[in-house]
Amino acid sequence: MSSDRTRSAILAAAEKLYADRGFGDVTLRDIVAEANVNLAAVNYHFGSKDELIAELFVTRSLATNRERLNELKAAEEKGGGRAPIDAILHALVGPTLRGCLGPDREGSTAARFMIRASIESVPPIRRIKNREVDHLRKFIAAMRRAMPGRDDADLYWGLHFALAMAHHTIRERERLTKLSEGQCDLNDVDAIVDRVVAVSVMALTAGETPAKKAPARSAMPQGRLTRQDL
Amino acid sequence: MSSDRTRSAILAAAEKLYADRGFGDVTLRDIVAEANVNLAAVNYHFGSKDELIAELFVTRSLATNRERLNELKAAEEKGGGRAPIDAILHALVGPTLRGCLGPDREGSTAARFMIRASIESVPPIRRIKNREVDHLRKFIAAMRRAMPGRDDADLYWGLHFALAMAHHTIRERERLTKLSEGQCDLNDVDAIVDRVVAVSVMALTAGETPAKKAPARSAMPQGRLTRQDL
DNA sequence: TTGCAATTCAAACAGTCGTATGAAACTATC
DNA sequence: GATAGTTTCATACGACTGTTTGAATTGCAA
């Protein structure tokens, strides 16, 4: 089947061009020129431009989510069904950050594409992202097991802030480099992951809703919640 | 001068439509229809579509930045030239969050416009945002005065994470509401500001680069750094 | 080899977009 | 009230967009 070659060529060309120039100014004609295929091939193989973008994003997104769940599962098995909170958060933000940052990923088309997808948020991608809620609920469930005493709202805020730091770092990495004049090392991905996880754990273990009084913490398995370096 | 009326009508109509439908699918023809002016008026008064968008964003952005600096200045004067870290962060994220969240701001066109600008990131807006570095440096300077013992890199990361949480909350507020099934109250803006500030302060006071050992904290004016509720 | 389906291709379609133009209407000054 | 400058207007331009079409080509099975 020669059609697979055309399909793959389109996917590769589209991902490369979107990664380099963004969704805003890449036309189907640009893509087919890069892929050396006919203009009509895109609609023939994908139906529409949006479906092409969706397929690109779904592929990469599923890979990240799978990696997340694998890491979460491994952590839960290691902990006998209950993973410590830092491991859960590590599984949440690790794959995303590792996939988009780091010197080896610098030239990766897939990484640059996902960064674009994180910045520009075009309709077909937005639609897919909105279905990610179910995926995140699995992490909320794991967090609930790790911190049974915690209010659900606090768990949601903790997860929300963890994703905030991860995505903002990916999205604004150039600005952070410029602002800090290189003092923030965006290439040391492991250190970034650790930093994001550490802050998230702090938010979850010490951060009560400021309006409330801090409750007794005896219900929480504190020893396991605190990272050794905090 | 009747020209001011046309100009204002265009600005108001554009802000409303962009706020409601995003930059992607609002054309000049939509704008002039909403404003009840002629199509050519946009290019006559603003030069181009991009310059219209830029003017809209610059106006709102300057207002926020001014508010930030006023709050920072007030905090520094109150502290005799050195504001506590939580007040600095409060001045950084407070105006942004207050401007975009909250029940009273729900119907505000300006707020919804800024949310759009935060989500879609169209070229003319991106250009303006890249000039914001100087503005942020003033906050870094204030943070350096508040925490003289801290590594600059840690300060940059702290500011970065504070902005991450604020912007991500604005940008993904619908998803957070959906994910938490309403358990996260996006209408209590003060509580959100306090929460973001609290986590940011924790990141700055306790968060060392995980690879390093935590240094002695004696150099830091701890008593003033820690919020009463932490 | 014949026949049929899958794939490729050049070309055109039907819009939409931001912008430009030149005349008309208005405004203010003298 | 004539004049000069500003602002509005209808209209068209030129280019670009995603998509469709129908014929040509290819690949594979009988």
Automatic annotation (TrEMBL), chains A, B:
Transcription regulation found in the keyword field: no
HTH tetR-type domain residues: 4-64
Residue ranges the UniProt entry marks as DNA-binding: 27-46
Pfam families: TetR_C_30 (PF17939), TetR_N (PF00440)
InterPro entries recorded: DNA-bd_HTH_TetR-type_CS, Homeodomain-like_sf, HTH-type_TetR-like_transc_reg, HTH_TetR, PsrA_TetR_C, Tet_transcr_reg_TetR-rel_C_sf
Keyword tags: DNA-binding
Annotated spans, Disordered: 210-230
Highest taxon of source: Bacteria
Gene Ontology terms, MF aspect: DNA-binding transcription factor activity; transcription cis-regulatory region binding
Protein name: TetR/AcrR family transcriptional regulator
Protein's organism: Bradyrhizobium archetypum
Species classification: Bacteria, Pseudomonadati, Pseudomonadota, Alphaproteobacteria, Hyphomicrobiales
